[in-house]
Amino acid sequence: MSTENEGTAVPPAPSAPPVPVDTPAASPQHPAHAPAHPPAADAPPAPMPATPSGGPGGPEQPSHAPGAPGYGAAQAQGGAPHPEPEGGWPPPSPPAHAYPAQGAGGAGDGSGWGASYEQPAPKPAGRRGGLLAAVLVAALVAGGLGGGLGYTLARNDDSSSTTVSASDSGGDIERDPGTVAGVTARALPSTVTIEAESSSGEGGTGTGFVFDTEGHIITNNHVVADAVDGGKLTATFPNGKKYDAEVVGNAQGYDVAVIKLLNAPSGLKPLTLGDSDKVAVGDSTIAIGAPFGLSNTVTTGIISAKDRPVASSDGTGSQASYMSALQTDASINPGNSGGPLLDAKGNVIGVNSAIQSSGNGGFGTGQSGSIGLGFAIPINQAEYVAQELIKTGKPVYARIGASVSLEDSTGGAKITDTGAGGSDPVEAGGPADQAGLRPGDVITKLDDTVIDSGPTLIGEIWTHKPGDKVEITYERDGRTNTVDVTLASRVGDS
């Protein structure tokens, strides 16, 4: 599947979301905060919960990469699938695009919130010219249509006037606060277009949104990755005011990052956070971002699916990100990464992160565009991650202490015979070991959520917090067994 890391392809994800038997697996609780909108960037995950087994050279991720299937096993140079231990990131499966930063990136292909994300190249001197050309073409088309219409009216109207008057001009219309226009009017002032540039001049554009009144902004890791080590970062509000910013913390595995405005203005209004656990398929959605660098763009759609397993990467060889995503058909493109996915009331329910795409993008960028398959990180999870990043600057991941295969199958998540680098596949004294799990066991369910692959298991585990107790169903020697496991923790991405 493509994730909104509009960039590189990742491990293939199952074509259908995990099937809850009774109730969906719990996700981290999320307090009602009011965040703002920041841009997205691509980031790889840290040691996985269930250590995935797969080599670094796995398939690209969803837009990540176009037409990415379910999470597949990463393959070694020889073509054989490799397992990867929990200590390291699982290799990406088939493509899903993570919205890459626009500019040199922009929202990436879900390969988060797509198809594979292409690392933005240094901004060419003529890039602005290309955008202007595209805008001019649009203007000419509209102008040509208007001219033809005016000529027809003049020919068919017996009066001397060739103009048409509307009963009310757009500016005089009173819009209900509950309409898309009303929601957008309230949310846009709290979103920003993020430009990230590395010390070598490479970078791209993404989106973000205000998280608190102190100037913290939530976005995707893959949006700001270029500026993490000595790069330059700016955030521009819809009113044109631009502020320098710094990265407070970033989580490659979750594809979430928090930046802070330097000399933040007073009066910031954080966006209200909703409850992604209560979202239902069919609910209306509103996405805000900067697709292909077009800041403050608003698109609408619905929640197409929940708990969609998505693995994504930015296409630069970085580690994959895993999520149990909200799927939406609201148009999401490179540059939308890190922007808010809102419900009909304007509450943030997700962070746009990736797309599944099947073709090249517009404006001569060569990036894949939307085909109605966008993926967002549930806000309950993103909020928890953001709070940890603000507190310590480092992400915290839940884990079971076992390496699982990333092979493309629908039978479950198999614990590998060998861990990464020849380590033990089941960590001695870890949660899996204490629960009696061993190499060869196939995990088929976590709580009430069906597990059809390693990446699906990883994404589901990461919706929990360290210390949570979960019920794992697994198969061994043809028999089905159930055991309770208390999740351990891992701090950092390495």
Low-confidence stretches: 6-15, 19-48, 51-159, 360-366
Question: Biggest β-sheet: count, sense, barrel?
Answer: 6 strands, antiparallel, barrel
Helix content: 10-25%
N- to C-terminal distance? 25 Å
How many E-type strands? 22
Order of SSEs, N→C? EEHHEEEHEEEEEEEEEHEEEHEEHEEE
Strand arrangement across the biggest beta sheet: 3-4-5-8-7-6
> What is the mean predicted local confidence, pLDDT?
73
Strand content: 25-35%
Q: Which structural category do the helix and sheet elements fall into?
A: alpha+beta
Note the total helix count: 6
What global shape is seen?
globular
Keywords: Hydrolase, Membrane, Protease, Transmembrane, Transmembrane helix
Enzyme class: hydrolase
EC number: 3.4.21.-
GO molecular function, one term: peptidase activity
Structure description:
By secondary structure, the protein is α+β, with helices and mostly antiparallel strands. The chain is built from 6 helices and 22 strands. The strands form 5 sheets. A 6-stranded antiparallel beta barrel has the order 3-4-5-8-7-6. Strands 9-10-11-14-13-12 form a 6-stranded antiparallel barrel. Strands 17, 18, 19, 20 and 21 form a 5-stranded antiparallel sheet that branches. The model is unreliable at 6-15, 19-48, 51-159 and 360-366 (pLDDT under 50). One of its GO terms (molecular function) is peptidase activity. InterPro entries: Chloro_Bact_Ser_Proteases (IPR051201), PDZ (IPR001478), PDZ_sf (IPR036034), Peptidase_S1_PA (IPR009003), Peptidase_S1C (IPR001940). Keywords: Hydrolase, Membrane, Protease, Transmembrane, Transmembrane helix.
